[in-house]
Automatic annotation (TrEMBL):
Catalyzed reaction equations: dodecanoyl-CoA + H2O = dodecanoate + CoA + H(+); (5Z,8Z,11Z,14Z)-eicosatetraenoyl-CoA + H2O = (5Z,8Z,11Z,14Z)-eicosatetraenoate + CoA + H(+); decanoyl-CoA + H2O = decanoate + CoA + H(+); (9Z)-octadecenoyl-CoA + H2O = (9Z)-octadecenoate + CoA + H(+)
Protein name, UniProt field: Acyl-coenzyme A thioesterase THEM4
Sequence segments annotated as region (Disordered): 1-30
Gene Ontology biological process terms in this record: fatty acid metabolic process
Main location: membrane
GO cellular component: cytoplasm; membrane
Residue ranges crossing the lipid bilayer per the database entry: none
The species this protein was found in: Streptomyces poonensis
Length: 194
């Protein structure tokens, strides 16, 4: 069973997404947005270490291999971890728009169990933009990039300013991020977006 709620149906005046001119070329890795991110950061030992690559238009592909630390039932991925992989993949799309955004809503269908050791082949695209609202969709396949869909999600991301993080994040991590030149450079790339 699957379906999308009315909250994730773009309004009639929604626009097609526009790829930012400085977005990485198709095939290029997007890299981590934050070293300590559970989804993509290299500094999280039990994180997903999800690696995303730009696709055509406002789309991307990503891979994540389920580790023993990601179990729910014995030998199977935890559903929340799979939802995290979808969330991270969908969130990475906003880098192609050069818009800072956070997840407002994430609707997930779990179609097949995903064993530990499995690589999830993710694909995602932005379908529409309406003001601050970014609508996107993703699938995760197993057995190969053309294998059966094990998980899928539709999402609504909401554009925010950098202040969203500065005002709400724990001060210790915010201060560390602000004194990391790589983090500041990456954040500035978002801020110059018109
Ligand atoms: C130099 C150092 C500084 C550091 C900088 C770091 C840069 C990092 C770069 C990139 C980071 C990306 C990280 C990716 C990680 C993966 C993605 C995640 O997991 S993100 C975490 C989970 N999500 C949250 O924690 C959101 C918590 N929620 C909120 O903060 C607010 O609710 C927020 C921002 C989502 C909306 O609040 P409002 O007050 O700004 O705006 P309102 O008016 O409520 O909503 C705007 C529109 O969106 C709709 N909307 C909002 N939430 C909705 C929902 N749940 N369902 C349907 N519609 C919703 C509303 O109905 C409204 O629509 P209408 O304009 O009236 O048409």
């Amino acid at each position: 069973m699957s379906g999308t709620s009315a909250a994730l149906t773009p309004p009639a005046d929604a626009q097609a997404p526009v790829r930012h001119p400085d977005a990485p070329a198709p095939g290029e890795p997007l890299g981590a947005h934050y070293d300590q991110c559970f989804g993509c950061g290299g500094g999280q030992p039990h994180g997903l270490h999800l690696e995303a690559r730009a696709g055509e238009g406002v789309s991307l592909t990503a891979e994540f291999t389920v580790q023993p630390a990601h179990q729910g039932a014995p030998g199977l991925a935890h559903g929340g971890v799979l939802a995290s992989a979808l969330d991270e993949t969908l969130g990475s799309l906003n880098w192609l728009l050069r818009i800072i955004a956070v997840t407002g809503r994430l609707e997930t269908d779990f179609l097949l169990p995903v064993p530990v050791g499995t690589t999830l082949y993710l694909e995602a695209e932005v379908t529409a933009v309406a003001g601050r609202k970014i609508y996107s969709t993703a699938t995760g396949r197993i057995g190969g990039p053309d294998g059966p869909v094990a998980v899928r999600a539709d999402a609504l991301f909401v554009e925010v300013k950098v202040d969203h993080f500065v005002e709400n994040g724990r001060p210790a991590e915010i201060q560390a991020a602000m004194s990391d030149p790589d983090q500041v450079r990456r954040t500035r790339a978002f801020e110059v977006n018109p």
